Hints:
By secondary structure, this protein is of the alpha/beta class. 17% of the residues lie in helices and 32% in strands. It contains three helices and eleven strands.
Amino acid sequence: xxxxxxxxxxxxxxxxxxxxxxxxxxxxxxxxxxxxxxxxxxxxxxxxxxxxxxxxxxxxxxxxxxxxxxxxxxxxxxxxxxxxxxxxxxxxxxxxxxxxxxxxxxxxxxxxxxxxxxxxxxxxxxxxxxxxxxxxxxxxxxxxxxxxxxxxxxxxxxxxxxxxxxxxxxxxxxxxxxxxxx
Length: 182
C-alpha cells in the first residue's frame, strides 16, 4: 500500500512539474498620445518566433492600459496601431523568466502610412510585482564546479539559503531549497 502511495505521489509530481518549471511572463503598459492623454482602442501586437501562433494581440482598455499574458522567454517585437495615429514599433523586447515587463508607448497624430520604429533596450524591471527572480543561463551553469547538482546551481543565487550545499560542510547537495530569505 505504501508503494502505491509513493508511486501516485511521484506521478502527480511529474504531471505538475511542467506548470511549475515553465516561466511565463507578461508584457503590460500604457498607451498615450502626444498630449499625454490615454488612448483606448489601440491594437497592441507582440510577435516572436517563440510563440506557436507567432503573434498575440491585445487592445487597450478605457484607461489606455493593455496586458499580454503567458509569454514564454524570448525576444519580442511590439506594434502599437490606431487609425489616425502613427504606428509605433518596439523591437528587441527581451522576456526571460516570469514577471511583468512594462512597455509604454506614445502615439502621435500622423498619416495612415507613417510608421515609427523605436530601437533600444527595454528595462527589465518589474514594477508591478514584489517577487524577485533569477534566471541562470547555460554559460553560468557550465562554469559551475564539478558538482553540477541542483544544490550547486541554487548556491549561485544571492540571498538563497539552501542549507547544506556540498562543499559547505555537507556530504550531498539538496535537490530543493530548504529556506528562502529575502
